[in-house]
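Protein modeling request. Please complete all fields; requests missing the sequence field cannot be processed.
Requester role: graduate student
Desired output: 3D structure, C-alpha cell encoding
Chains: 1
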Amino acid sequence: MTRRIPLVGLVAALAATLTACGTATGSPSATKTTTAHHPAPVVRKSAAAMTPAEIDRFERAYSYAVAKGYFDAFNDAHFDHHRNRNHGFELTSAAPPTVMVGMTPAWGYRLLPWHRSFVLEAEQMLRAALRQRDKEEGRDPREADGLFMPYWDVAHDQAVPAWVQAFQPQGGTAMVPPDVPKGHPLYGKPVGSRYDIHFGRWPGNNPAFDRLPQPAQVAGIIDHDDFPAFYRAVEAEPTIVPSAVPAAKQALEALDRRFPDNPDVQTIVETLKRSPEELKAAAQDPDATMKLLDAAFGVGYLATAEAAKPHPDQDLINTVHTAGAAIISPPHVILHLWAAGIDPTNPTVRGTVSNFNELTVDPLFWMIHTELDRWWFTWEQSHTGLPPLTGEDKQFQPVLSKQGAWYGGGRVHTLRDLAPTQKLPYRYDELFRP
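Delivered output (434 residues):
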C-alpha cells in the first residue's frame, strides 16, 4: 500500500473554492483598492529582537487579517501542491503523519524560492490590512510601510519567543484534507469542504520531535557548496549521530520485543547500519527518504500516543526518545512539528502550524520560513548557484491575480526576481552566525 496521497478530488475542490476565497471568504473586492502601494525596502528582524511598537504593529495587522479571512486564500495556495509544486515532501493529516513526495525533483528545488515569493505576498497583504485597520481606527496608515515579517532564530533562541507564544490569532477557514484520522474533530467531514479553524499550538510537546536545530547543524547546512546539496540538507537529508547509535540500537531492540514485526522499527534499524556516505546517497532518492521519514513518524507516534494516556508508560516514551536520538530529521519538518506540538489530550490533533491546509493563520509559519529564507540569504552571500529549475518551474505565483488584486499583489514572481539577493525588497538585520 503506497503512502503517496492521491488528491484528485481535492484539486477539483480547490479549483471551485479559490475563486470564492478571493471575495466572500477571503479578501475584500478588488474594486475597493485600485492603486497598488509599493512600500520601501524593509529590514526583517528576529522576533526576539522586535521593539514593543514593532510587535504591536505586527499583531494589529495580523489579528485583523486573520479575523477578516484574508489568510484563507493563502491557506488554499499553500495546500494546492499540484499547482504550486512547493515542497519536496509534505506532511499528511494522518496519525501518525506520513509524507507525500513531490512528483519531480523540481518540487523540492522550488521550496525556497516559492516560499520567498509567498512571504513577500503575505507582507504586502499585511501592510494593506493594517492600512485598512488604521483608517477604521483613525490612526496613521503610513505606519504600515515599515511592517515586516520577522524570523524565528531557532538555533539560538531554542524556544518560541514569549510574545509569539502568547499571540494566537483567531479566525479563518481552511479545506478539509484527506486522511483525517479517527478521533480528530474533522474526521468524517467531506474532503474539500470548508471549516472554521480552531487554533492550536503546543510547542515542544511532541515526544518524537523535541529537539530544535543547533547552531553547528545550521552552519553545516549553509556550508554546502551547491544549491541541490543545500536544499537537501534543509528538507530531505537526515543526519545520523554516531555517538547516539549504540544506545539507539538497544532501544530499538527493546521496541522490537514490545512491538514485534513493526515495520517502522525495522526500517530505523536498517538505517542505523548505513554509513554516512550511504545515507547521503539515499537522501537523493525521494522514495528512500519518504520511507525513512514515515518510519520515524511511526516510531515517534508510539510515544505520542502513549503520552496522551491518563497514566502513560514513561519507560516506553524514554525508549522511543533514545531510539530517535540517533537520527536527526531535516530542519524543515522538525520546525513545523516542534512548533506545533501535539494536543496533550488527543494525539490525533497536531498544532495548526503542522497542518499544511491551515497553517498560514499561525504567525510561526511565516517566522519559520523567514528563518529558512535567512539561511538561504546567508548562503547566497558566498555562493552563486541557483535552484536548478527550467521553464515554468522558474515562475512562482502563490496567490492568484484575482485574489491578490485588492492589496496590489498576486503577481508572477520569477527566479530572476527572487535571486540573487540584491534584487530583493528586504534585508535581514543580521546574517546567520553559528
